Task: structure prediction
Amino acid sequence: MVLYYADRDREFGTRVRLFPQAPFLAGFAEPEVVWLSPPAGSIGPGPADDRMYVIDAIDKDEPYAFPYLPPYYGPTRAPVEPDANGHFAHFSPGSREFLAVHMYGSVRRVLDIFESYLGRRIEWPFRLDYPRLEIIPLINWDNAQSGYGYIEFGRLSSTEGVIHPYGLNFDVIAHEIGHTIVFSMVGFPAAGPMPLIFRAFHEACADVTALIGLLHFDSVLDRLLRACRGNIYTLNELNRLAEISETKQIRIASNSAKMWEVSPEPHDLSRPLTGACFDIIVYLYAAELEYRGLIPPDLWTRTFETKTHEQWAGQVSETFARRYENRHFAFKAALMEARDIFGHCLVSAWQAITPDQLTFESFGAALLDACRTIAGERHQDEIRAIFQWRGIDVSVRAPEFR
Result:
């Protein structure tokens, strides 16, 4: 009987435990059980599979930089072993083994999510040189990066002297592997320095990758909706990116940045596009709520206009809270539907653009086209207005690059 259940369990995939947000943040001290797509028993020690492998380097003091690239040949800790049934969910969150599994599991989780939207395997952009992605969970460095054939993470030292590995922050991992996925689907610009707008586009898409990944945690959806009583436009767990303390985050998705306000620095320049994508997700959520009869027809318009009329914010939140009461699961279903509509539109837009002729406007137009294919004309005016408010003119259709 035990073998029967173990065999049936194998079909579901492989269990790991992941922190949806950094574990030192309130409400996220316990990791969540997540199923990865590879069948239990197919992931080897490391963890490692046919797409990626973890190398827990010992005393790697310098991050990779050209021409020094994988594979890593220095001393390493022993590969992490699965349990008797092929799962990796049995390690203590404070252990080095858990960190290795968390890195692998987070990367694989994001890849699973976006392959499900695409409907096929996402090939690595470096596959001609490296058949598998190398994952290094902790080096002596206060940063994290993805590169050609690798992803490696350092650690943050708090003011109290406590070490917080970035590899325990799903946001940061999803952002970094998001860069790799975008390179896979969009490609690389022609030889030479990457154009500024392409780098900013990459930062925005990596941020949005993290947002979508976060929305696939059941505990995040529940905590998010209950904390904001249905109004996800407020500052909350969803729109803070890469939180590094209770009050500090690297970037905020729900921002009011416009193209004429930002500097020519890739992360700052990315903010209007990140903000527009966040606004679209919230709009699609509100549209689903309205379609299901859960909120009044004009509530999205009033919600969006709180950006310029802050005095309306309280009334909007009160309306959301009143409609949300006793309807948590109905609101949750609407948010999941909005997440998936946007996810499908995003990967379609990535496939419709080319790196050498990319602009925020061409990407926005491609996103509009993708939404038209999925939902008809239903959302076109509202999404166009969201981009327009940011100073991104998508009124002209994107050229047919492909």
Remarks:
- The longest strand covers residues 14-18.
